[in-house]
Amino acid sequence: MSKKNERAFANAKKFISGGVNSPVRAWQAVNGTPLFVDKAKGSKIYDLSGKEYIDYVLSWGPIILGHAHPKIIAAIRQSAINGTSFGAPTEAETEMARLICESIPSIEQVRMTSSGTEAAMTAIRLARGFTGKKLIAKFSGCYHGHADSMLIKAGSGVTTLGIPGSPGIPEETAQLTLSLPYNNLDSLQKVIDIHGSQIAAIIVEPIAGNMGVVPPREVFLETLRELTAKKNIILIFDEVITGFRFTFGGAQNLLKIKPDLTCLGKIIGAGLPVGAIGGRKEIMSHLAPLGDIYQAGTLSGNPLAMNAGLAALNLLKEKKDEFKILDGKTKYLCSEIENLFKGKGVCVCINRFHSMFTIFFQEGPVFDLATAQKSDTKMFARFFHGMLKQGVWLAPSQFEALFLSFAHTKKDISFTLDACKRALKNI
Ligand SMILES: *Cc1c(COP(=O)(O)O)cnc(C)c1O
Questions:
Q1: DSSP assignment letter at 278
Q2: Does any ligand 1 atom lie closer than 6 A to the CB of residue 265?
Q3: Contact (Cβ atoms closer than 8 angstroms) between residue 361 and residue 375
């Protein structure tokens, strides 16, 4: 850790609460001082002392094309020259919406927001307004942004920091959110039997990524779709991470399941602040100004974010076989990492879905939050610091997903495996 970085963090702590603008960035779970970033390019990220790392965080998901992609930079530059915000519609917004509708079959109309949090918040309000029901159900360990009703047994930083809910959320609000174990059909059936007629929506990450990666078990999402349809419950897929990560479309394209509403974010903004909610016209038309369910945003559909996102989506649209190659690359990396751990006699359970994965420091299987939490987080922290020292930047928490981008090369992967070998010596 350089003196320059120490100074940067000390300064930040003077003026920013906790020194960071989002809690997971503080590296508390790995007992470290966060590295400040100078710049990034492709699969590499650089700290203040100029040290290079292979980046597996990728801004927590958005950077699937690699950092500072020339086409995205050009789109942002051109857009900035023409003005950064108007508070009036632009054609770029229509084009973004059209691409989303074209690529995700369950979406007929969309509304853009400035974050995934806003998308999830809007989805919940829309579901309540549309159904006239009050209760919401979510799955423990899934994260849907930091709106009050979604911070109940949430994943991501909430799991990392061990916060069960959050002070500041009134009990009356918390009581309206039911929390269920992921991948558990018995408890789902029970809750729907008892509360079904009062549940407005069930929200789920189709591939959970915020308790570490936890893929859905067979028929879990199919059954969820059937049960919610029967009881007039709006099914919301939170695809903020998974949207456009595995294919040109959502995880729902691969799973062949149609939710009623879908939340998007991250990749569709190419690293600029963005979110989107989409679904059937019948539901979406209840939003103001057509309907009476209110939702708004000064910077929603911001031209810089739209043009960056459009550049990214147009690049991703051309990538058919490349998505398969990315999947294969990640598969190879994970199986080699697993072998290295095995050789060292250390138990790990690697959960992976295409280009996102988590190395859980335990035997496994990990299929929900309770099983994820059996991991040895102290050993994870030692591994994290070992890898960092070797030039590999992992997410600073056991309960997060790691990502590959199209910019990660075979050379990056063999470098990462060598780093892993060395890091394992001191684990
Ligand atoms: C990141 C994330 C969000 C929140 O998006 P922000 O842009 O950080 O508000 C919501 N849901 C999921 C699944 C996420 O991973």
A1: E
A2: yes
A3: yes
Nearest CA to ligand 1 atom 15: 241
| pLDDT, average across residues 178-184 | 96
Same domain, 169 and 252: yes
pLDDT of residue 209: 98
User: What is the average pLDDT across 163-185?
Assistant: 87
The percentage of residues in the chain with a pLDDT greater than 90, rounded to a whole number, is 93
Is the CB of 116 within 6 Å of ligand 1? yes
Q: Is 368 considered catalytic here?
A: no
Domain of residue 23, CATH code: 3.90.1150.10
Strand partners, 235: 202
Residue 111 CA, ligand 1 centroid: distance in Å: 16
Nearest protein CA to atom 14 of ligand 1, as residue: 240
Q: What is the mean pLDDT of residues 209-216?
A: 98
Of 56, 153, 182, 238, which is the active-site residue? 238
Annotated active-site residue 327? The verdict is no
| Residues 13 and 83 placed together within one structural domain of the fold | no
Phi-psi region of 251 (alpha: psi -120 to 50; beta: other; left: phi over 0): alpha
| Residue 172 burial by Cβ neighbours in a 10 Å radius (0-12, 13-18, 19+) | exposed
pLDDT tens-place string over residues 108-150: 999 999 999 999 999 999 999 999 999 999 999 999 999 999 9
Task: Using pLDDT thresholds of 50, 70 and 90, give the confidence band for residue 164.
Answer: low
346 and 308 share a domain? Answer: no
Is the pTM higher than 0.70? The answer reads: yes
Residue 238 is a catalytic residue: yes
Asked if the peptide bond before residue 23 counts as cis, ω within 30 degrees of 0, the response is no
Same domain, 309 and 395: no
- Point out the ligand 1 atom lying closest to the alpha carbon of residue 156: 15
Distance (Å, whole) CA 119 – CA 100: 14
Q: Which domain holds residue 365?
A: 3-68+320-424
Q: Count Cβ atoms within 10 A of the Cβ of residue 147 and give its class: 0-12 exposed, 13-18 middle, 19 or more buried.
A: middle
Cβ of 5 closer than 6 Å to ligand 1, yes or no, is: no
Q: What integer best gives the mean pLDDT of the chain?
A: 96
Query: Which of 53, 56, 143, 182 does the annotation list as catalytic?
Result: 143
Angle at CA of residue 22, ends 116 and 176, nearest 5°: 55
Which whole number is the average pLDDT over 229-255?
A: 98
Q: Are residues 43 and 169 in the same domain?
A: no
Domain identity same for 40 and 113: no
Find the angle CA(158)-CA(160)-CA(164) to the nearest 5 degrees.
40
